[in-house]
């Protein structure tokens, strides 16, 4: 299995990540990694794809959650440019949130570093059967009631996304490391 | 004494039947999502862990990953709103556990 995340560290203290002229906080014990959004069918990231940090949240039972503003400002994509992914409704805070058709590229880290991307290893394509959920910022995203939803402070990657893909995720709590291998 | 029955005569000016605008026709992708949901119980037995594509409600094929199916459909001229490509796994509607952080 080719490596994707190698000894990706997480920390016992608050850290920050600076990218694209902004700084975001990562609270203790949050696992942050770097991704970009992908349209279906991509075999490599688009030349203009923007990398941004997300939190791997195994307690989040969706695929990927991002706010409209994060999509615009962090990923450089308007949510409305992505096709609706039809299917059973998933409810966030009791509101049905339309899902958009997209995949993710996960960027390999340099061994033992969180925010340094490995220049040799290729990014890994996470294929998302249900697409991504976009909500928050008081914006109406296809359904009026999505205006009421509080979006994630940092985009969230859930276990459902990993489960659609042939990957192996390992946590090494004593060393505060995460490993991800793909096929 | 027998009850007096009134004949069932329709009123002279029946209220107009409300016109309900019809829903827009389902896209091929929506038909395909419904077909996938219909077939899922069987697919979980025969093709769990694989990807399956449906176009315009018809099953197109299986693959180990999503992208080859997507590329094949596009190369055959299908528009993106005509198909879905889904991972064969339990796919339930309902609440997502989510806490903004």
Structural description of this entry:
The complex is a heterodimer of chains A (183) and B (101). Chain A has 183 residues and is mostly beta strands. Chain A has one domain (3-182): Cathepsin D, subunit A, domain 1, CATH 2.40.70. Chain A contains two helices and 15 strands. In chain A, a hairpin with a 2-residue loop joins strand 2 (15-19) and strand 3 (22-26). Chain B has a domain at 28-87. Chain A binds chain B through residues 27, 30, 40-43, 55, 57, 59-62, 65, 83-94, 101, 103, 125, 127, 129-130, 133, 136, 150-154, 156, 163-164, 166, and chain B through 27, 29-30, 32-33, 36-37, 51, 64-67, 70-71, 74, 80-81, 84-87, 89, 91-101.
Write the layout of secondary structure elements.
The complex is a heterodimer of chains A (183) and B (101).
Chain A: E1 3-9, E2 15-19, E3 22-26, E4 31-38, E5 52-57, E6 64-66, H1 68-75, E7 90-92, E8 95-96, E9 99-100, E10 103-106, E11 124-126, E12 132-134, E13 156-158, H2 159-163, E14 167-172, E15 177-182
Parallel strand pairs in A: 5-13, 6-12
Antiparallel strand pairs in A: 1-15, 2-3, 4-5, 4-10, 6-13, 7-8, 9-12, 10-11, 14-15
Chain B: H1 28-46, E1 51-55, E2 58-63, H2 66-75, E3 83-87, E4 94-96
Antiparallel strand pairs in B: 1-2, 1-3
């Amino acid at each position: 299995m080719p490596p994707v995340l190698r000894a990706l560290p997480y920390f016992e203290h608050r850290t920050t990540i600076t990218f694209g002229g902004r700084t975001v906080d990562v609270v203790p014990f949050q696992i942050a990694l770097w991704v970009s959004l992908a349209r279906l069918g991509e075999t490599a990231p688009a030349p203009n794809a923007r990398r941004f940090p997300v939190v791997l949240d195994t307690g989040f039972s969706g695929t990927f959650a991002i706010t409209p503003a994060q999509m615009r400002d962090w990923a450089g994509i308007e949510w409305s440019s992505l096709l609706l992914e039809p299917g059973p409704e998933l409810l966030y805070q009791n509101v049905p949130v339309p899902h958009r058709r997209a995949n993710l590229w996960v960027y390999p880290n340099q061994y033992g570093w969180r925010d340094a991307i490995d220049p040799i290893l290729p990014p890994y394509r996470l294929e998302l059967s249900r697409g991504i959920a976009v909500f928050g910022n008081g914006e109406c995203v296809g359904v009026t009631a999505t205006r009421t939803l509080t979006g994630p402070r940092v985009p969230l990657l859930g276990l459902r996304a990993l489960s659609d893909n042939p990957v192996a995720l390992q946590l090494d709590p004593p060393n505060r490391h995460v490993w991800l291998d793909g096929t | 004494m027998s009850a007096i029955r009134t004949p069932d005569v329709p009123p002279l000016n029946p209220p107009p039947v409300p016109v309900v605008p019809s829903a827009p026709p389902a896209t091929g992708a929506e038909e395909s999502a419904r077909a996938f949901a219909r077939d899922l119980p069987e697919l979980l037995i025969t093709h769990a862990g694989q990807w399956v594509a449906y176009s315009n409600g018809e099953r197109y094929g299986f693959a180990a990953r999503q992208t080859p199916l997507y590329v094949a459909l596009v190369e055959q001229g299908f528009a993106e709103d005509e198909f879905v490509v889904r991972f064969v796994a339990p796919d339930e509607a309902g609440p997502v556990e989510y806490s903004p952080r």
